[in-house]
Design brief:
about 325 residues, alpha/beta, 7-stranded parallel sheet, 4-stranded mixed sheet, 15 strands
Length: about 325
């Protein structure tokens, strides 16, 4: 049955792909984004667009909305360390205003784009939802604070909510109309698009931050998830959200790829040499971060179908080349 949903941050990378999936599923979509990090051209055709802040969501939310999918947040770890107040005001304060607006409008379903950064440096991997939450930066702390707020809202006011925690999102999505949605971050901080910039001649080399970790090739291992698989999890979460419950699910492939494996895969997919530059370890970078998605499989019925690293890189490469000519 067609429903109407508000997608906050729907002009950003993940939000735009989820908005496109909702439209393809026959739903009505309103995107709310202040374009501070999102892009107007990322809003899918067919979605209503409102340029505005989540703090002002009460202006637009009413009972016609079946739910909210919340992506609007600042997400740069380094920036959060340098300017933590920016993250508390927007990520935490903004979400508090959004929850109040939802309560007043009697919109009772929420899917929250959380992060596995809430776990900090895990004692064991793969990481389950029962792992201790000990974020190592204000970004992760702000997302954890929001999760706590959502739990309280569910217990006190019967909100039906699902938080999805994940690590590295990559790839691109081609919608039914041929439009592709991918990463447009500026500045870029994610590994795959950074390595692709080297293939495009936009960077001379890629920095490898540490090559002496206790992994099979000495470089950090991370869990990569295709953005389309991620979007499908958000739609499943809408269907599984239950009144009064805050369900938290990790999302991931369950298999990690090292920095060097990512670089080598980009070489194979693009056919370009990718020079590497050795760099010192970054503070707080764990050797291995891999999520267990068993709860998502059991509770949401979700399984990633695009887990092949070469396929993820190929989709990201196609989008990167289209973006340059757009």
């Amino acid at each position: 049955m067609s429903q109407k949903y508000l997608v906050t941050g729907g002009a950003g990378y993940v939000g735009s792909v989820v908005a496109a999936h909702l439209l393809e599923a026959g739903h009505q979509v309103t995107v709310l984004d202040d374009l501070s990090t999102g892009h107007r051209r990322g809003v899918p055709e067919g979605a209503e667009f409102i340029e505005g802040r989540i703090q002002d969501a009460a202006k637009w939310l009413d009972r016609s909305f079946a739910g909210v999918l919340h992506f609007a947040a600042f997400s740069q770890v380094g920036e959060s360390v340098a300017d933590p107040a920016k993250y508390w005001v927007n990520n935490v304060g903004g979400t508090m205003e959004l929850l109040a607006a939802m309560r007043d409008a009697q919109v009772r379903t929420l899917v929250f784009s959380s992060t596995a950064a809430t776990y900090g440096e895990p004692a064991t991997t793969p990481i389950t939802e029962d792992a201790a939450t000990a974020p190592t930066n204000p970004y992760g702390a702000s997302k954890l604070a929001v999760d706590h707020m959502i739990s309280g809202e569910c217990a006190a006011h019967g909100l039906a909510a699902v938080s999805l925690r994940y690590f590295n999102v990559a790839g691109a999505h081609r919608a039914a109309d041929g439009t592709t949605y991918g990463e447009r971050h500026d500045p870029e901080s994610h590994l795959i698009p950074l390595v692709l910039q080297v293939a495009q001649g936009r960077r001379e080399a890629v920095s490898v931050f540490g090559d002496d970790y206790p992994t099979h090739d000495g470089t950090c291992v991370r869990d990569y998830i295709h953005v389309a698989d991620l979007a499908e999890a958000h739609l499943l979460a809408l269907d599984k959200a239950a009144a009064g419950e805050h369900l938290i699910c990790n999302l991931g492939n369950g298999n990690g790829f090292s920095v060097r494996e990512v670089i080598e895969t980009v070489r194979e997919v693009t056919g370009h040499p990718i020079p590497e530059v050795a760099a010192p370890r970054r503070g707080g970078d764990p050797a291995v971060l891999v999520a267990s998605a068993e709860r998502a499989r059991q509770r949401l019925g979700w399984r990633p179908s695009r887990a092949d690293l070469a396929g993820i890189v190929a989709d990201a490469w196609e989008f990167a080349q289209r973006k340059e000519t757009a």
